[in-house]
Amino acid sequence: MKDEVIYLRAAGLDLGKRFLVACVRTPAVSRAETWSLETERFETTAAEIRRLLAWLLERRVEVVVLEATSDYWRHLYYTLQPQLNLMLVNPAHLKGIRGRKSDPSDAAFLARAGASGMVMGSFVPRREIRELRDLTRCRTEVITSRGREAQRLEKELEDTGMKLSSVISDITGATGRAIINALIQGERDPGTLADLAVRRARSKIPALVEALEGTFTEHHAFMCRHYLDELDHLTAVVEHLDARIAALLACLSRDQDVDRLDAIPGIGRAAARIIIAETGGDMAQFATAGHLASWIGVCPGMNESAGVNKSGRTWPDNSSLKRLLGVAAMAVSRSKDTYLSTYYRRIASRRGSLRALVVVMHKLAIAIWHVLHDKTDYHDLGADYFTRRDPERAMRRMTKEANRLGLTIRFEPIQAT
């Protein structure tokens, strides 16, 4: 046949919310070197999906290509995957020609792409990992909502003219809660309110007295009570999710992986659990550390045309992990005495802080791959790694800096005592 194919019998599914169009591509019987297409429309109800499964099995398809459309693909994928060679593909990789696009043509194009091997299947973890991923993503959303409630509380206090957030960094901490609760109960004296400060905040009592002068009305008391109740509720939800996540990780025997990931700078236990949930903790899906970095979206893109390299910006692939690594890289940039913090400052001095953050995110992705792939602990190379690697270069740099100041220096080895 003229077309170079990998699968002789392939199917494509163009999926929508209410219905899908299936197209089966098979060799034509009546005419050599041609293909016959059979198209059928199915609803997305459970009964219709079972009919689709029987229809595909009857035609003995070797591969089925399905676009990852919104969340509509989930139930369909979970139903078909155990009995068919199902390939879930990114819709951005398969765009139809404008002006010649319809549901049947999309399904036929998916079938042809699957038959010729032009597409790659996306990573879909097993059921237990999917449940863990749902829990960690829900936890992230709840924490984000809790942050918004804290911002609304701060906004309400600003409406009273009180500058509590200008004195203490966290108005939802022990000192902030004690002061706000006293305000809700009717206390208005700034001195009495400031005396409720605890621990290190007591050193700020004079500043608190000045900051707590304002007009706190019954309306403000009602709104602040509402925001505090919302914060307490969301905190309880986070604790409940944490318990569920910990239990599921224990069932999956991933506690040791969490401990190893926790040792990487910038990554705590909560972040380690998200990494396990998003990747499955099994690096067999990623051939190299570079594949993992590309899947997360923390490696440079490639856009070359006519010998000209255009924008190499990163792509928003796995947004959950990319956001997590961004927060971890910012934490690393503020730390000291680690290899990654030194590496960040080296890159930032030449390329700027934003590019340096992306580079550190790439380094973190590589470290994550090795920790999970090799089942080994993370070992920091040390802040003096670059000096130990090339001491002569370090001495030249110091000599150059001294010469700029009009000084000269001499290096002599330290005598052993």
How would you describe this protein?
The structure is a single chain. By secondary structure, the protein is an alpha/beta fold. The chain has a 5-stranded mixed β-sheet. It has a two-stranded antiparallel ribbon with strand order 6-7. 29% of the residues are buried. The protein has 4 domains: 10-116, Ribonuclease H-like superfamily/Ribonuclease H (Nucleotidyltransferase, domain 5), CATH 3.30.420.10; 128-251; 278-302 and 315-374, no CATH class; 387-417, no CATH class. The mean pLDDT is 88. It is built from 17 helices and 7 strands. The chain starts with 9 loop residues before the first strand and ends in a 13-residue tail after the last helix. Helix 13 packs across helix 15.
List the helices and strands and how they pair.
Elements: E1 10-15, E2 19-27, E3 35-43, H1 46-58, E4 63-67, H2 73-80, E5 86-89, H3 103-116, H4 127-159, H5 164-167, H6 174-184, H7 190-194, H8 205-211, H9 218-251, H10 255-262, H11 269-279, H12 289-296, E6 304-305, E7 308-309, H13 319-333, H14 339-351, H15 353-374, H16 385-389, H17 391-404
Parallel strand pairs: 1-4, 4-5
Antiparallel strand pairs: 1-2, 2-3, 6-7
Residue windows where pLDDT falls under 50 for at least 5 positions? none
Helix content: 40-55%
* Distance between the ends: 82 Å
Please compute the radius of gyration using only Cα atoms. Answer: 29 Å
Number of helices: 17
Shape: extended
Number of structural domains = 4
Number-wise, the strands total 7
Strand content: 5-15%
Keywords:
single chain; 417 residues; alpha/beta; 5-stranded mixed sheet; 17 helices; extended
